[in-house]
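Session log. Operator J.P. requested a structure for one protein chain; no other inputs attached. Running the standard single-chain path with token output.
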Amino acid sequence: MSRSLEFNGATVEEALEKARASLGLDERVLQYEILDEGSSGFLGIGARDARIAVRVPEEAEHTSTGSQAFISPTADFVKEEKFEENGQPEPEVSASGSEVPAEILDDIRDYLSEAVSKMGIEGRVEVYDAGDYIAADVDAVETGLFIGQKGETIDALQYLVNVTVAKRHGFTKRIILDAEGYRQRRIEALQGMAHRSARRAVRERRTIELPPMSSAERRIVHLFLRDDERVTTFSEGSGENRRVKIAPVRRRVSRETRR
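Structure written below.
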């Protein structure tokens, strides 16, 4: 089995290189479709990235180590960005690979099933131990309503189930709530925004301000641009208005270089 992942870059060749590095596959064996060849625009105006869709074999998904794709939703992206929802820190969780008892998985399933039912949404809940975290997938009839605007509903319910289970059972793994692959799609969208904004910051030689994001989303941007030597990222603001800013790195030019 396989699925498709999107990669972007200044050119199709750059997008292919990112796909190759991320998936650990030879470019010659990559199966891809060009979604957009991109454009340099006119004097930088109207520029857009090239985009490709790469067919990913199942085995590659499990072995990939790249930073652009397959980011675990439990990763501690940036230590200074402590995860918070609704103004409260999420309970401490374990990242160990110890097996989760069946009664805890059943409790999570029952809790989420009841919550979804009380929301007036028809849906089926599946819960399983994914190793580093507990995965809870909701197959809802009205997926958009369950996810909510900018993911606010699904994030709030994820926070509540983590707090509730931690209180009932003590120290446990983080629970990641998802619906129809929303988490991975959101990660890829944030990475695309970060990539385009970094290019713009470098091109225009000024700081680019991103829209307000949750702490989890800010981590994704920080991690994605962590190894980009052209820019630096930092967060400013408080509460719902806290956002990531991407600034170009000003390099000092030595006297020898000037000569």
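Operator note: Residues 194 and 225 are 7 Å apart (CA to CA).
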